[in-house]
């Protein structure tokens, strides 16, 4: 996993570099939050939900912000359901 500052799309050069490094996922969060929670002694878990392929995938049209937002909104419902079903099971 590679963490970049976002929200933004990777350039083609960045995307190809991340793949060469062996990254399967590019995210715009997690690392700073994990480090800060650890420093504060707060347990932390992340739920990652993909919204699109990076620009290395050249088949088809490039992704648009509207498409990302549409998938993001669908993911919000999935994460909400996940949390509502998981939290009651945590001791």
Characterization of the model:
The protein is mainly alpha-helical and 91 residues long. The chain has one domain. The protein has a two-stranded parallel ribbon with strand order 1-2. Strand 1, helix 1 and strand 2 form a beta-alpha-beta unit. The longest helix has 22 residues. The model has no long low-confidence stretch (mean pLDDT 84).
Strand content: under 5%
**What series of H and E elements makes up the topology?**
EHEHH
Overall shape = globular
N-C termini distance: 29 Å
Q: Count of DSSP helices?
A: 3
- Based on secondary structure, the structural category is mainly alpha
Strand order of the largest sheet: 1-2
The strand count comes to 2
Q: Report the uncertain regions.
A: none
Query: Domains counted in the coordinates: how many?
Result: 1
Give average pLDDT, whole number. 84
Largest sheet: 2 strands, parallel
Q: What is the gyration radius calculated from CA atoms?
A: 16 Å
**Fraction in helix:** 40-55%
What labels describe this entry?
mainly alpha; two-stranded parallel sheet; 3 helices; 2 strands; 45% helix; globular
Summarize the structure.
By secondary structure, the protein is mostly helical. It has one domain (2-89).
């Amino acid at each position: 996993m590679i963490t970049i500052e976002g929200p933004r799309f990777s350039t083609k050069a960045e995307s190809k570099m991340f793949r060469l490094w062996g990254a399967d996922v590019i995210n715009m969060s997690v690392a700073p939050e994990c480090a800060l929670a650890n420093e504060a002694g707060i347990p932390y878990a992340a739920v990652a939900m993909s919204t699109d392929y990076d620009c290395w995938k050249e088949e088809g049209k490039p992704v648009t912000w509207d498409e990302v937002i549409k998938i993001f909104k669908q993911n919000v419902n999935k994460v909400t359901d996940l949390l509502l079903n998981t939290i009651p099971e945590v001791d």
